[in-house]
Amino acid sequence: MENQLILDVQGLKKSFGKVQALTDVNLQLHRGEVLGFIGPNGAGKSTTIRVILGLIKESGGSATVFGEDAWKDSVKIHKNLAYVPGDVYLWPNLTGGQTIDMLLHMSGQTHTAKTDELIKEFKLDTSKKNRTYSKGNRQKIALIAAFSTDVDLYIFDEPTSGLDPLNELIFQQRVAELKDHGKSVLLSSHILSEVEKMCDTIAIIREGKVIETGSLESMQHLTRNVVAITTASPMDGLDKAKGVHQLNFKNDQHTIAEFTVDSDEIGAVMDLLTKSSIVQLKTTPPTLEDLFLRYYHSDAGQKVGE
Ligand SMILES: Nc1ncnc2c1ncn2[C@@H]1O[C@H](COP(=O)(O)OP(=O)(O)O)[C@@H](O)[C@H]1O
Ligand SMILES: [Mg+2]
């Protein structure tokens, strides 16, 4: 079915005693989409995921997966879902290889050629006991099992927090492959730049509430890079360049500047700056904090990012 709603979370609330972990979470994930679930530590990402998985019961609102109730129908839902937690706990005395097969067995899957391919790709030594593995290696084990599982929905809770850049890249490629096969992916992270490339839609959560949801394009204003630059000759035309905001020249000669630039205009702006002979250049991707600041600025009636 086209545009089938795989995951639907509406007005979700969750309290632990007096702690209101979730106050208003709304998420929609369609077939073949990757949804980035972004927010700082303690914002409520894992709690939301645990409700979606039916591990804890919501205190209000609703969560449905494949049109079924996340709590009541969790057994049925789990047959068609793969999950990798942020902190992977594994049986200490099994080897990595035994663990992968065990995880596959538990979800009714078998060790396939793809499993071997993943083990090779992630360069995992499967002969070691789990208790000797680092956090990153434990994560790899869970990721290998998840990626070699054939289901419709994949949920990754901060999956790359222990991975080095090379493995992070493999992860990104494998997520792209799932998407190509029409699978749906929910991906949580507290680092926007780690997941933004992979996601069709991003939902931003802060203090238990989803405060912004949209396509990356619609949030382009939120994904500006900060540029600090020094050139040999004056940066003519920069003030009129498309996608350049908050331009601030640091000297009268206009050879030192700081500004922010829309992600999709970086190339054109760099071409322009090259004409002034770049001497020094530093770009910083937007942090979640920048993003929240912008959000609150826009809330106060100012145009976002201006
Ligand atoms: N079992 C629990 N009991 C009490 N408070 C909890 C429990 N689980 C989570 N919380 C609280 O809920 C909030 C959200 O936590 P969490 O969902 O783990 O955030 P995130 O995954 O975004 O870092 C935090 O304030 C956390 O302390
Ligand atoms: Mg978490």
UniProtKB/TrEMBL annotation:
Please give one Gene Ontology molecular function term for this protein: ATP hydrolysis activity
What are the UniProt keywords, alphabetically?
ATP-binding, Nucleotide-binding, Transport
Is Repeat there in the keyword field?
A: no
Q: Where would I find the ABC transporter domain in this sequence?
A: 7-232
UniProt protein name:
ABC superfamily ATP binding cassette transporter ABC protein
From what superkingdom does this record's organism come?
Bacteria
Query: Which InterPro entries does the UniProt record give?
Result: AAA+_ATPase, ABC_transporter-like_ATP-bd, ABC_transporter-like_CS, ABC_Transporter_VariousFunc, P-loop_NTPase
